[in-house]
Amino acid sequence: MNALRSLLTVLALCTPGASALTYTVKPGDTLSKIAVAHHTEPADLMRLNRLPSTTVKVGQRLNLGNVAAPTAWPRAQATGLSTSKGSAFVRTAASRFLGIRYALGGTGKGGIDCSAFTRQVFQQMGIQLPRTAAAQWNVGQAVNSRDLQAGDLVFFNTLGHGVSHVGVYVGGGMMANANSYQGRTVIEPMLSNAYWAARYLGARRVLS
To answer: Which residues form the LysM domain (predicted)?
Structure first.
């Protein structure tokens, strides 16, 4: 009987749709790296394991859950912009706001923060986004990091408690964002940058 139970457990874990898959954190792992390897997103792993931040420890066991298709969320209101047109236009839209001084709570050319920057960029494309990074996380459609397109919003946990930073993916592994460390709005490497890779939560697509 015990042997039969063990066999059934193994079969359940190996069957597509099983919800008890786990992973043990190894040296050099980050939550983002683990998520990409298992075709899921850091934010999903944080929810499944009730993690307060993206920090993981060697030897820690993570519940991988049942990897499913990205969840559809309400789309932001757009003015009939096609995906191809929006993707081609996003670099130009982002470039109009590069070099502006970073200012927490700022919304204009005298000083701007991360979510105000993305809001301004998308206004150029006829899309109205919410004011904060956390609110922007709730619009559009979830996108796997392997399927990023120019114009996708990309989100990060920089403060240790959920979404706290947002940028715009512009293609080629680069993102445009209002960077508080650099003190201005810039285009920079994203997941090839160890800082951002370790804090990446996921992406949302709002261009339709």
So the answer is: 21-64
The C-alpha atoms of residue 94 and residue 121 are separated, in whole angstroms, by 5
pLDDT digits (tens, 9 = 90+) for 119-160: 999 998 889 999 999 999 999 999 999 999 999 999 999 998
Is the pTM higher than 0.90?
A: no
Hey, what domains does the chain have and what are their CATH numbers?
A: 2-63 (3.10.350.10), 83-205 (3.90.1720.10)
In angstroms, the CA 81 to CA 136 distance is 19
Span 2-48, pLDDT tens digits = 444 443 333 443 444 444 588 999 887 888 788 778 777 787 888 88
Distance of CA 51 to the CA centre of its chain: 16
Active-site residue set: 114, 165, 177
